[in-house]
Automatic annotation (TrEMBL):
The keyword Transferase applies. The gene is csd_2. The keyword Transferase applies. GO terms for molecular function: cysteine desulfurase activity; pyridoxal phosphate binding. Its EC number is 2.8.1.7. This is cysteine desulfurase. It catalyses: (sulfur carrier)-H + L-cysteine = (sulfur carrier)-SH + L-alanine. Pfam families: Aminotran_5. Belongs to the class-V pyridoxal-phosphate-dependent aminotransferase family. Csd subfamily. It comes from Allorhodopirellula solitaria.
């Protein structure tokens, strides 16, 4: 596996040059929460605002036509990024959360009844749990969780067992876990779920930044991801659905833009994709997203994935070698750039705060995976997540800082213990 030319890539990301409050240069290892934006994205959005911004679809004037063209071109770019057979299968949503909520409403309310089961993994982000709990409250269906084993892994056999036991109406799972870093076999599990007649939703929030998404190969019914995790803007995400399914289910949000006709008695919906895009859409964000997808594609998703694997393995091996540090996740060969960990005797929030003092940005907490943390018997972890612009030197700064934090706390813990024993 080879590393990317990070010197070259880092020139594209203005923010990576800065120092943090402690005066240390920034080592940004919080990419699973949100990535940074290259100039190509900033410039594309800036250009739209400066030269041709207007509302789309409704105006018959130059600016509106130019904005509409750019917005629809962004949809085409997105469709081609995920290899969607039809451009109208790409719906722009506010993000992964909004997209899953749309499916839980539009598909869930029309396909799920009191005897049905929605199956998810124990490692799911709250965005892929709460909308199903809400669906359960509306319909009386149940949400069931596929557990993981003591190595933080979920085997095909366990997935098959749960599909067989619950015969779920929906199997909704993340292609990659935002806490464990695990990458799951999307194609295989989708095919297994289809054999049981389940509809499949893939939360690709942590996969889209790092892997080539091929919706035709994956064959899932719905696939969702967020713009801000693929170097794009906030406020935009993608809901991909198979055309037949999107045509069959009703719209969730109602309002302008999604209707063909409105009378005092009711309304008829627009065709795809407008049917699912009520109100003024995220126009400039879509243009920014397309610029981000083009940027990543030009580097190559396979090369990005390989780069992150090298860095992720360096983090994993380095953390495991520090006495008193525990990696929370599978072995390095089963994940890419995300590593969550615990330092004995130090709360995850304190770890994160200390690391900030070294210029290292990581995340601490439950990472919106409370059921997973409960299953692991911990309340919070610290997470370091790498992306295409990170370097081995930054990983080493993380490891040195963790070693320092560990030894400082181990000493003060010993001092506290010896004071206590003297009392
Ligand atoms: N699913 C996963 C796996 C995630 O990592 C995230 C973001 N942390 C989400 C869903 C939610 O994404 P967003 O906040 O962009 O809607």
């Amino acid at each position: 596996m080879s590393l990317l030319d990070t010197d070259r890539i880092r020139e594209d990301f203005p923010v990576l040059d800065r120092n943090v409050a402690s005066g240390q240069p920034l080592a940004y290892l919080d990419n699973a929460a949100s990535t940074q934006r290259p100039r190509a994205v900033i410039d594309a959005m800036d250009d739209c605002y400066r030269r041709y911004y207007s509302n789309v679809h409704r105006g018959i004037h130059t600016l509106s036509e130019e904005s509409t063209r750019a917005y629809e071109m962004a949809r085409k770019t997105t469709a081609s990024f995920i290899n969607a057979p039809a451009t109208c299968e790409v719906i722009f949503a506010a993000g992964t959360t909004a997209a899953i909520n749309t499916v839980a409403r539009s598909w869930g309310d029309t396909h799920v009844g009191p005897d049905d089961v929605i199956l998810v993994l124990i490692s799911e982000h709250h965005a892929n749990i709460v909308p199903w709990h809400q669906l359960a409250a509306r319909t009386g269906c149940r949400v069931e969780f596929v557990p993981m084993d003591e190595n933080f892994e979920i085997s095909d056999a366990v997935v098959a067992e749960y599909l067989d036991r619950f015969q779920p109406k929906m199997f909704a799972f993340a292609a990659a876990s935002n806490t464990l870093g695990s990458e799951y076999p999307v194609q295989r599990w989708t095919s297994m779920a289809h054999d049981y007649g389940a509809t499949v939703l893939i939360d690709a929030a942590q996969a889209a930044p790092h892997q080539q998404i091929d919706v035709q190969a994956w064959d899932a019914d719905f696939i969702v991801f967020s713009g801000h995790k693929v170097c794009g803007p906030t406020g935009i995400g993608v809901l991909y659905g198979k055309q037949e399914l999107l045509e069959e289910i009703p719209a969730f949000l109602g309002g302008g833009g999604m209707i063909l006709n409105v009378t005092t008695d009711g309304f008829t919906s627009q065709e795809l994709p407008e049917k699912f895009e009520a109100g003024t859409p995220p126009i400039v964000e879509a243009i920014g997203l397309a610029a981000a997808l083009k940027y990543l594609s030009a580097i190559g998703m396979d090369r990005i994935h390989a780069h992150e694997c090298v860095l992720g393995q360096r983090v994993d091996a380095g953390l495991r070698a520090i006495d008193g540090v525990r990696v929370i996740g599978p072995t390095a060969d089963k994940k890419a750039g995300i590593n969550s960990f615990l330092i004995d005797g130090v709360h995850a929030h304190d770890v994160s705060q200390f690391l900030d003092g070294y210029g290292v940005a990581v995340r601490a907490g439950h990472h919106c995976t409370m059921p997973l943390h409960e299953a692991m018997g911990v309340t919070a972890t610290t997470r370091a997540s790498c992306y295409l612009y990170n370097t081995p030197a930054e990983v080493d700064r993380l490891l040195e800082a963790v070693t320092d934090v560990r030894s400082k706390f181990a000493k003060s813990g010993r001092r506290r213990r010896s004071r206590r024993s003297a009392e």
